């Protein structure tokens, strides 16, 4: 209760007035001194962005981080090792004959397939199948007759690798089959003969692609079929290899 004229009317009120208390809550008293922000005559200080140690460290480290990214992008990628394991191979090329047989058969296209397993990086074993088609150039008749020569081997390959390049030597033994007896006329085949033992030896080079499972190569070889009047020839092929 207050007396007229604004003079405190009780001892409690007089004590509060002496201490400068108004009876309001602490939160209200804390903000009581702040001027209203809606006044058109108030001058506002420009706001400043918050600065702390993290922002300073980032601003100093940004050029270093950018330089590290550029260096990483410019550095050459490490070469990936070639796969080792089961493999398959397919190639296209040509087969020709040596000696007297070169006058009785023309060079023809050849298809080559292989499959096997790498025992180690430097040694692999497998099977090798090759088919070639040739025009018989024997004295007429007949004229314009073609035949196919099929060869199959169990073979092995020895090699070494320097970076993405591999060099190898290979060889095998197996059987050969001739689809026609047209060469019987020039005594390459005996009457009724179609099968014979076959041997091969050769080598080549291989390039490992970026994908470690794939490689391309160029190879050539010599082959011999003793049962066909020692028929022999050479072949070359371009191939694609896939290692599982």
Secondary structure layout plus pairing:
Layout: H1 11-19, H2 26-30, H3 53-74, E1 86-97, E2 108-120, E3 123-135, E4 146-162, E5 165-178, E6 195-208, E7 214-225, E8 231-243
Antiparallel strand pairs: 1-2, 1-8, 2-3, 3-4, 4-5, 5-6, 6-7, 7-8
Strand content: 35-45%
User: What Rg do the Cα atoms give?
Assistant: 46 Å
Strand element count: 8
Write the H/E string, N to C: HHHEEEEEEEE
Q: What class, by secondary structure content?
A: mainly beta
Mean residue pLDDT: 81
Q: How many structural units, i.e. domains?
A: 2
**CATH C-level category of the largest domain:** Mainly Beta
Report strand order across the widest sheet.
1-2-3-4-5-6-7-8
Describe this structure in words.
The protein has an eight-stranded antiparallel β-barrel with strand order 1-2-3-4-5-6-7-8. The N and C termini lie far apart (99 Å). The radius of gyration is 46 Å and the shape is elongated. The chain is built from three helices and eight strands, in the order αααββββββββ. The relative contact order is 0.14. It is mainly beta and 244 residues long.
Quick structural overview:
The chain is mostly beta strands and 244 residues long. The protein is built from 3 helices and 8 strands; from the N terminus they run αααββββββββ. Helix content is 15%, strand content 44%.
